[in-house]
Amino acid sequence: MLGTLTLLLSCQLAGELTARLLHLPVPGPVLGMVLLFAGLLVRGGVPEPLQETAGGILRHLSLLFVPAGVGVMAHLNRLEAEALPIAAALLGSTLIGVALTAWVMSVLSRRGPDAETGNGEDAP
Amino acid sequence: MSPDFHEIWVYLSASPLAGLTLTLAAYQAGMWVFERFGRRPALNPVMIAVLLIAATLMVAGIDYRTYFDGAQFVHFLLGPATVALAVPLYRQFQQVRRSAVALLVALLTGSAASALSAVGIAWALGASERTMLSLAPKSVTSPIAMGVSEQIGGLPSLTAVFVILTGIIAASFGTWVLNLVRVTDWRARGFGLGVAAHGIGTARALQVNEVAGAFAGLGMGLNGLVTAILLPVLYRLFFT
């Protein structure tokens, strides 16, 4: 637990430092995630304690959104003034995003094997 | 009696203890309501906790800054949690290598479409630039979305609100819209929810189907990465 927490924080710190030193437009924790991912690829597996700690944190991931979410208080004026564009943008873009991603994925994974056999026709 | 109470009040509002306790208690109340009423997507625990805390702060006359000073211990954990996303990403990476091309194309299409349509719709209806920039990264999990928002000149706390609302919208209407476009493949359905609606979409996919859940988790992690890299670049191309 203590060891893996240190590992996670070290990856984050390394990510922050890399992003700042190289002026990369990527948040430090994301680079930390890439670092840890690369480490896991090299190691070829997830150590048991890391699995437990990561699982524990991610199980309560939604709790971590709460303090920032309460920030809605600080933005009530803006939300009220721009209610229509905000509501339409959130609703429209979310439904477009879900539908388009799933549709493209299903079309491509259906066509994949067909293309290999040279048969371009859609299956019934 | 009342001078004592005043002293206690001064002490409490200056220490992180009250804000921290309020956050944990409100979240657990949110979870309880969510479980108690059949895990309905509309009763999202985060949403309930946020509303409870906001109402408490307003009644007690405490401003958001003061509360956040206390609650930032919880907020800080978003960093290590983002790093920890590497673990599910790695575990699923092995399973989904075979559909890599389909995943990649769907990811790039869905990621770009989510961000561009959000900004486009907001722009067409006359939103301010600050609001549009805060909307752009709303499809990814909030630690990443807030980081990106800060970088492109949005308001991270406003983005966090948009992220949560996006998740709730997808959890509520996702099944309907996926049936509408006639996607029956669980992998694709899950991936769509994860790419467009991060952790809340993933939680929803997991409730419905295990394969969908795995692909949703993958979609969430990958879109976090893509958005973190692409949006700041797009922003520099269009806004500066």
UniProtKB/TrEMBL annotation, chain A:
Keywords: Cell membrane, Membrane, Transmembrane, Transmembrane helix. GO terms for cellular component: plasma membrane. The chain crosses the membrane at residues 24-46, 58-77, 83-104. It comes from the Bacteria. InterPro entries: LrgA/CidA. It is found in: Cell membrane. It is a multi-pass membrane protein. PANTHER family: HOLIN-LIKE PROTEIN CIDA, HOLIN-LIKE PROTEIN CIDA-RELATED. This is CidA/LrgA family protein. It comes from Azospirillum baldaniorum.
From TrEMBL, chain B:
Pfam families: LrgB. One of its GO terms (cellular component) is membrane. It is a multi-pass membrane protein. Keywords: Membrane, Transmembrane, Transmembrane helix. InterPro entries: CidB/LrgB (IPR007300). The chain crosses the membrane at residues 12-34, 46-67, 73-90, 102-125, 158-178, 212-235. It is found in: Membrane. PANTHER family: PLASTIDAL GLYCOLATE_GLYCERATE TRANSLOCATOR 1, CHLOROPLASTIC, PUTATIVE SEROTONIN TRANSPORTER. This is LrgB family protein. It comes from Azospirillum baldaniorum.
